[in-house]
Design goal:
Number of helices: 11
Shape: globular
Structural class: alpha+beta
Helix content: 25-40%
């Protein structure tokens, strides 16, 4: 489809403006509007310290119909006490007043530096600017995507379609996140829109499943944010029979949501702070799904291996070390590892392989590492990226 932004599905308008929250002068306040109202669902960080925006967003998600989402970048509104909660609610009430809807029908999200109060004078002005600038065209959707960025270097967007009951349903989304990324909810503000007619429980189920197998499989540095929020809004304008239960129609819709989330997660990995390449760790032969996930994450999070990837070094020893030290069951005599299609370790023994070819695989923009633990029949995966000097530079200078 041509318009892969949040304005692609029918029933949505968006805007992104610069109101002075970011010292760079870049866009820093975004707005999504569904004039006809939308069914909505969300998933959030599991960090026990959360932003005021997360608290208020959860409250307002109880509404049966949502009319808008307002987002600011540059200030997390976390660890800001009662004033922070009041400011998050004020963002909703001011947006609602401008749009002529109840404050409880407005969702809110924030991202940026922790511990600072929101500059409400700038945000108030920005909300007015965003309402005025709102449009249902592609550029408006792209403006929104840029307004939610922090250390991201590019906007991330994706779209997919599905046929349901003879109607074409569209799902589109955008996401931000480049650092402080580690399952669950990989340091993310993500916003999906769809014109599907679907009930709130089915919409929530589709979002949870898609996030669980995409964004929640991504780790950059193993750390959660306090603000992670992923929302999906459904306008119901596609004309399909309302999806009310699991079955073929639900599966088609859920597959489209999954496609969008998977694309966004991969885009995040490739734009991670300081990253030059990404990889997928696939674990087979685990004793349980939980242990497969733990082993995959252990490899993807292992700094020594991430550095090896950055240098194009096919150092399989660091992979074996990571799975061996993470506490999962494995059979040392059946433990095996492949870099791409090249087996570098088999049944507990190193193999003869072409180091130059293995290095070429590791040096690709994307590659797959496969490990068999030899302890069972379960599998899982995790996305990761290399670790470069630039990551340290970005995070050393982030606050100042």
């Amino acid at each position: 489809m041509n318009n892969d932004t949040v304005t692609g599905p029918g029933g949505f308008a968006a805007a992104g403006v610069a109101c002075g929250i970011k010292t760079s002068g870049n866009k820093d306040l975004g707005l999504i509007v569904c004039p006809g109202g939308a069914v909505a669902a969300g998933v959030f960080t599991t960090n026990k310290v959360v932003s005021a925006a997360v608290m208020v967003c959860k409250e307002n998600l109880r509404s049966s119909i949502i009319s808008a989402v307002v987002v600011n970048a540059g200030c997390a509104n976390t660890c800001t006490g009662t004033q922070g909660l009041n400011n998050a609610r004020a963002m909703c009430s001011q947006t609602g007043r401008r749009l002529g809807v109840e404050a409880g029908k407005v969702l809110v999200a924030s991202t940026g530096i922790i511990g600072h109060q929101l500059p409400m004078d700038k945000i108030t002005r920005g909300i007015g600017m965003a309402v005025e600038a709102c449009g249902d065209d592609e550029q408006s959707g792209r403006d929104f995507a840029h307004a939610i960025m922090t250390t991201d270097t590019v906007a991330k967007q994706a779209a997919a379609t599905a046929k349901i009951g003879g109607a074409t349903v569209t799902v589109a989304g955008t996401i931000k996140g480049a650092g402080m990324i580690g399952p669950n909810m990989a340091t993310t503000l993500g916003f999906l829109t769809t014109d599907a007619a679907i009930t709130k429980p089915m919409l929530a189920k589709a979002l949870r499943g898609a996030i669980g197998n995409s964004v929640n499989k991504l780790t950059v540095d193993g750390h959660q944010s306090t603000n992670d929020t992923a929302l999906i809004l459904a306008s119901g304008l596609a004309g399909n029979p309302t999806v009310r239960k699991t079955g073929m129609d639900y599966d088609r819709f859920a597959s489209a949501v999954m496609d969008v989330c998977a694309s966004l997660a991969r885009q995040m990995a490739l734009d991670a702070e300081g990253a030059t390449r990404m990889f997928t760790v696939v674990i087979n032969g685990a004793s349980s799904k939980v242990e497969a996930a733990r082993a995959a994450r252990a490899v993807a999070d292992y700094p020594l291996f991430k550095c090896a990837v950055h240098g194009g070094d096919p150092n399989w020893g660091r992979i074996i070390c990571a799975v061996g030290s993470c506490g999962v069951k494995l059979n040392p005599d059946r433990l095996s590892c492949r870099l791409g299609s090249i087996t570098v370790f088999k049944n507990g023994q190193p193999t003869k392989f072409d180091a130059a070819k293995a290095s070429a695989i590791i040096s690709q923009k994307e590659h797959v590492i496969t490990v068999d633990l030899g302890a069972g029949r379960y599998s899982d995966f995790c996305y990761g990226c290399d670790l470069s000097k630039e990551y340290v530079t970005i995070n050393a200078d982030y606050h100042t």
